[in-house]
Amino acid sequence: MHYLGLDIGGTFVKAGLVDETGRVLESSKAPTVTDDLHAFLSTLTDLIREFQKTNEIDAVGIGVPGLRSSKTHIIETSPNIRCLKHVNLEQLVADQVHIRTVSENDANAAAYAEFVCGAGVGLQHMAHLTLGTGLGSGFVLNGSLFTGASGYGGEFGHTVIQAGIDGGGRLCGCGNHGCLETYVSATGIVMTAEEKMKAFPETILHNIEPPLTSEKIYAAAEHGDKTAQEVFKVTGRYLGIACANLMNLFNLEMIVIGGGVMAAGDLLMYSVMAAAKSNTLAPSFADCRIVQSKLWPDAGLIGAAMLARDR
Amino acid sequence: MHYLGLDIGGTFVKAGLVDETGRVLESSKAPTVTDDLHAFLSTLTDLIREFQKTNEIDAVGIGVPGLRSSKTHIIETSPNIRCLKHVNLEQLVADQVHIRTVSENDANAAAYAEFVCGAGVGLQHMAHLTLGTGLGSGFVLNGSLFTGASGYGGEFGHTVIQAGIDGGGRLCGCGNHGCLETYVSATGIVMTAEEKMKAFPETILHNIEPPLTSEKIYAAAEHGDKTAQEVFKVTGRYLGIACANLMNLFNLEMIVIGGGVMAAGDLLMYSVMAAAKSNTLAPSFADCRIVQSKLWPDAGLIGAAMLARDR
């Protein structure tokens, strides 16, 4: 049995032919259209038909960056791909390609991948975080993907970690202040660097050609710049506190972390572990391992394919 | 069938004879011994035996203020009742009174009560918060009491809402900084008032005879003192942000709030609702009602009794 997983990103739609064990056999991608549903749909159906030429596809799974209703299967919000708002994407795709199609929030799909064939195989309680431009998150609780009353659950990136009632958490893309995503993501790293640069005129971060990116800040840190290193330490502390919040709330067995930001390795993870330990109630900390993703950057499309297999 | 529910508080152990529908038929209480396990145990067994004189008790349920292992049934931590640390309380009690006995974290028991016979009957996804000296919390997810890998889950009061890496969240009893409980509880109200009093020398809060308590601050607010009113508004905003965090993470159907602090009513709840709405992703906010507890102050003992019925 073969499944086609699609992972819709802000820039590219990635597609992968996945076998029933979660192995990616072939992959492909195409630019994402964000403002024209007809063109967006053509991108997806073209990708699927290309794979159909040489393979029998048993079902299609789509990871969507937005809130999808598990009751109606309609995408209620998708801030970065606006043509998807109020669309039943899986129905539209199935009608075109005549293959059973399921969809799910992309971060939930990624968590499901790590659960069924990645770092979290066999566990009952795990969280999966993806640190990219934003912070994606999904949860497996009691051995099942947890999505809440209508499928909108799991939005850890928009929980407030800096309430700042008397002095301002950072402004998030969602319109609120102090969301975790504004501290723990590539975007958050840039914001932390910009704050530090005001205090430290001697840092080589001032010499970086704009735009400032988390990759350039990491390069400066690798080059020995103390301020750039401090940016990753601070980010790690926020991420560690975030992990502690999850452990105190869910008493997890594992937190799996993926995403481009994880390339920073020990520079980030040392302070993640220290902050996680000091902020978690000891019995819950003892139960939980914090590990790197096994499936990044393919977790999204593998998870979508595995949901097509299992739903 | 009759069940005896025990709710162990820092000052009193409350006991209630509960019928199989969750109705409290008779109740009693005794002072809590915190530092002597033998004496503590005698308090419990005396209470139980007193009820046994006139009633047949089918099972005993105990709500414990601490982290209880669902694997070993041992209480791993109980900061306020230190003699319970590393004790299998339900076994010790059962051995003495020869009745089947179960125990559970007190806040989880209270959540279970609201789920089986209180505000949340028939729901699949709900949270229960108790605002007292601290902040108790318990969760029902997918129609079951959620307690995580080893039973330690649900500790929302110790999630960090004010990470304050560059400037200090409040010190919590757990040793960390910025825990929700330090903002949203009777203790948090006093801390907020103390902060406001520094800025507002004209408030009548300065005239209150020590110790300052949330009740006295509420009385000042009722008396028209603007600073005291602002204390409740700020507390409500923190609680609203906390509710938003839960809705974004769990996509709940209901948040049930109980505890003495809720006597503040609209003075608190108006800003709770405003902050919850503005900080929650719209589809998740639309799914959830925030309501007052139906069973407070008996939720803990009723929940313990209902767990004795159902486990």
What does this structure look like?
The structure is a homodimer of 311-residue chains. Chain A has a five-stranded mixed sheet with strand order 3-2-1-4-7. In chain A, strands 10-9-8-11-12 form a five-stranded mixed sheet, sandwiched between helices. With 311 residues, chain A is of the alpha/beta class. The first copy, chain A, has helices spanning 37-52, 89-97, 106-117, 186-199, 214-222, 226-250, 266-279, 282-287, 299-310; strands at 2-8, 12-19, 24-31, 59-64, 67-68, 75-77, 101-105, 126-131, 135-141, 144-146, 254-258, 289-292. The first copy, chain A, is globular and about 60 Å long. Chain A has nine helices and twelve strands. In chain A, helix 3 packs across helix 9 (299-310). Chain A has two domains: 2-112 and 298-310, Nucleotidyltransferase, domain 5 (2-Layer Sandwich), CATH 3.30.420.40; 122-292, Nucleotidyltransferase, domain 5 (2-Layer Sandwich).
Question: What is the topological layout?
Answer:
Two copies of one chain form a homodimer.
Chain A: E1 2-8, E2 12-19, E3 24-31, H1 37-52, E4 59-64, E5 67-68, E6 75-77, H2 89-97, E7 101-105, H3 106-117, E8 126-131, E9 135-141, E10 144-146, H4 186-199, H5 214-222, H6 226-250, E11 254-258, H7 266-279, H8 282-287, E12 289-292, H9 299-310
Parallel strand pairs in A: 1-4, 4-7, 8-11, 11-12
Antiparallel strand pairs in A: 1-2, 2-3, 5-6, 8-9, 9-10
